[in-house]
Amino acid sequence: MSKRKLNYIVTNKYVDGWDDPLLMTLAGLRHRGVTLTAINAFVRGIGITMSDCSVIRLDRLEHHIGCA
């Protein structure tokens, strides 16, 4: 989800804030109980892309959460 859409959701009070567990933000993931080790492994696993329209599948994150 784009930063613009996330900002709209947060500022219009559709969620409780940037750390709401419904959001796929770092604070939201931490609030869900995802460990820093799992987040770091996920980020290293997806690498760096120069594409503006890259889509990362949720199962890649779930894989790293299950391994940590």
Structure description:
The chain contains four helices and no strands. The longest helix is centred in the middle third of the chain and has 11 residues, at 36-46. The protein is an all-alpha fold and 68 residues long. α3 (36-46) packs across α4 (58-67).
Name its key features.
68 residues, mainly alpha
Major beta-sheet overview? none
Which class best fits the helix and strand makeup?
mainly alpha
Distance between the amino and carboxyl termini: 25 Å
Cα radius of gyration in angstroms? 13 Å
Order of helices and strands: HHHH
How many DSSP E strands?
A: 0
Count the helices. How many?
4
Question: Tell me, what's the shape?
Answer: flat
Strand proportion, as a percent range, falls in under 5%
Point out poorly predicted stretches: none
Mean pLDDT: 86
Q: State the helical fraction.
A: 40-55%
